[in-house]
Amino acid sequence: MKKGILERLDAGEVVIGDGGYVIALERRGYVKAGHWTPEAAVEHPEAVRQIHREFLRAGANVIQTFTFYSSDDKLELSGNVTNITGQQINEAACDLAREVANEGNALVAGGVSQTPLYKDSSSESEVKAIFKKQLDVFVKNNVDFLIVEYFEHVAEAEWAVQVLKTSGKPVAATLCISPEGDIDGVSPGDCAVRLVKAGAQIVGINCHLDPLTCVRTVKLMKEGLEAAKLKAHLMVQPLGFHTPECNHTGYLSLPEFPFALESRAMTRWDMQKYAREAYRVGIRYIGGCCGFEPYHIRALAEELAPERGFLPPASDKHDMWGKSLELHSKPWVRARAQRGFWENLLPASGRPKCPSMATPEDSTAT
Length: 366
Ligand SMILES: [Zn+2]
Prior knowledge:
Elements: H1 5-10, E1 15-16, H2 22-27, H3 40-43, H4 45-58, E2 62-64, H5 72-77, H6 86-101, E3 107-112, H7 116-120, H8 124-140, E4 145-151, H9 154-164, E5 171-175, H10 188-198, E6 202-206, H11 211-227, E7 233-237, H12 268-280, E8 285-286, H13 294-303, H14 305-308, H15 331-334, H16 339-344
Parallel strand pairs: 1-8, 2-3, 3-4, 4-5, 5-6, 6-7, 7-8
Helix pairs in contact: 4-6, 4-13, 6-8, 8-9, 9-10, 10-11, 12-13
Bound molecules: zinc ion (ZN).
The site of zinc ion has 4 residues, from loops.
């Protein structure tokens, strides 16, 4: 029997999450940008299975179902050109996640995300019915726990938590918000309190902003919970991109989103700094979202290997801090086989005319 998510976190274990799927699969030709819907779970299961497997090998302890935006209202908004239903996607995604998770000691998390319907109608019963439909598939397939993720409005996330907790399974809830708070101006601390009161046992932040900004927001959530004398585990799954100039809406407001983000990619050493900082502030569920590739997840597992006591399988082909370069034929490359070199490197972009930062769009425009 695998230990459940709450057993692991209650025991003080570090749980490494997986990385982002939609951006990674868009780049590989399996997801359409703008729509960001996960039909690939049905159309190209081999592609989804492979990326699950790479995250597992990199050290992920959780495999999330590839069900981002897989509600019928979102599929219809995107034209549903394939006629594949949300139900079919959710079923296929559960099978794929379970198959791969069982190849290691990983748990399957069924995920729901924000709905277009919330912005259109804000009808509590209709929005909750969407989450219930997804939940029914997750329960039927016996996922290990549930994740409410990528919500800009804490009010909608509360509804999702309320629905998912009826299953009796543990519920994690992460918002895609900045240290300023959610889109309605609710502070991170108040958001955390509301999510825990709604029934979430794990709360935090995902997507939209770079790792250290997301860690800062989770820290504000932690302080809010402490002030309210509430207890919950903390979680963070940030972007794998640098977003120093971003405003409230995060990387969506950058001109590089979504087709020219490469120059903003984080290095594996950036990820080690992130993992260390997240651990230092008390976050124990540490993963990634858009922009996280398997080697980024491996960097988290390697940085926290002293606490966890083991390295992931993908580290068989990777020495931390470039030690394997000692065998390189060129002396100047051999000289890079040391921590100090990579830790202090300021990577050049190689783009002579590029600014270091962009001007984000006005985040108040709708
Ligand atoms: Zn994301």
